[in-house]
Amino acid sequence: MDFIRPVSDLRNNFADISKTVHETAQPVFLTKNGYGDMVVMSMEAFEKLQFESEVYFKLKEAEREAELTDKRFSSKDVLKAMKNAIYG
Description:
The chain is an alpha+beta fold and 88 residues long. It is built from 4 helices and 3 strands, in the order βααββαα. A 3-stranded mixed β-sheet has the order 1-2-3. The model has no long low-confidence stretch (mean pLDDT 94).
């Protein structure tokens, strides 16, 4: 469900908007003169979105790299490399 409010509600009903973004973890879309202007979301939702975007970007990067080379690693090799990186 999209929450769409006029930008003036940010000033007039800030507490209500804050409550909405925290309770629903969904953004509130603010309009100005009937057109989209801003998006307000909780810090938690923003951080989750950033994390998911970063993971997606890294997966896409890995897919592109896999297309350019035939080199593959077994799960055993990856686990060994991870242990070496962590424990030295």
